[in-house]
Amino acid sequence: MPAAPGPDHEIAIPPALIPRDGRFGSGPSKVRDEAVAALAAVAHTYLGTSHRQEGVRSVVRRVREGLRELFALPDGYEVVLGNGGSTLFWDAAAFGLVERRSSHLVLGEFSSKFAAVTAAAPHLADPEVERTDPGAAPRLIAAPAGDVYAYPHNETSTGVMVPLHRPAEGDPLVVVDATSAAGGLRASARAYDVYYFAPQKCFASDGGLWVACCSPAAVERIERIRASGRWTPPTLDLGIALENSRQDQTYNTPALATLFLLAHQVEWMLGQGGLEWAARRCDRAAEIVYGWADAHEYATPFVAETAYRSHVTATIDFDDRVDAAAVARTLRAHGIVDVEPYRKLGRNQLRVALFPAIEPDDLVTLTRAVDHVIACLVG
User: Fold this and answer.
1) Per DSSP, which regions of 55-147 are E strands?
2) pLDDT digit string (tens) for 255-303?
3) Of 289, 310, 309, 287, which Cα lies nearest the Cα of 299?
4) pLDDT tens, position by position, 78-111
5) C-alpha span between 379 and 374 (Å, rounded)
6) Is the CA virtual torsion 331, 332, 338, 344 positive or negative?
7) All structural domains of the chain
8) pTM of the model
9) What string of DSSP letters covers 106-126?
10) How far apart are the C-alpha atoms of 106 and 98, rounded to whole Å?
């Protein structure tokens, strides 16, 4: 068990050890000040206007065209979006992508939730599930039995990164949960059929929206299932989402601020050099945090194999001499927030986002602040 909490309420972190921006959460994530200012500047002509009119549809168009460029999508791939986030997309995929059965890699909380959705769906056969212990190297399925092969590019709850891949045998649709990976990890469109995500992580926006980059095979599957007559609630109907996205709109009213912040972040990334620039920035962030932990007396990266350590979500374990919860409380009291571990993982650790919007220099300062708090707690 970790050491009993010390008097963390009495610890003062010197101003020199306070990052310029203290937001290190894994979602919702830091939103850049420039994006907020840009939103404020257009508030009177954009916020509170119809999502069926050009003012909002032009922003949806910016999102779709910007993501197509950012991910270098081949001809025939489409950017589809709808309301509800990745959690809702799992439900929509159970109706609109899985024909009979799905196969899942489960590495933590979020990858398990998609498998649970298809297991509960009365119109589908029980899914094939390959489970890996949290933090361990992912165990892949060489020949999936399902017509959908689903896995996360990055398991947000544990900080395990899964290489994008197609199975060695068979030809299922490859459906990748990229919620915390998209925009921060390199991604070749040829490796997937659906790459879906929400914008409140690497894309430094708010939640409530899902986006899916879909291959021609995925588009064909969506249209075929819809034509088959399978009953689907309209808000979960990927065919309806596809039709509306082609008109640069969503089926029902979206959060306009979310759309604008997403468009602004995508264009910021493109202006800096695109996905490769963003991925290199996350690589640098990972070097800072894992390098610090590897050299630390009390800390160690939770993911042992370096090849699978996430470059967008770092999970750092502490030994029993350090109460990580006390460290997080002290940081929060000084405006350094959301470094607590994923609640259901139940480990004595900190979880730190490494998203492109986070300044690497702030991560360096964060590690120094943690060192100061540990020194005060341990003595």
Assistant:
1) 78-83, 102-106, 128-131
2) 999 999 999 999 999 999 999 999 999 999 999 999 999 999 999 999 9
3) 289
4) 999 999 999 999 999 999 999 999 999 999 999 9
5) 8
6) positive
7) 8-31+274-378 (3.90.1150.10), 33-272 (3.40.640.10)
8) 0.96
9) E-SHHHHHHHHHHHH-TTSPP
10) 17
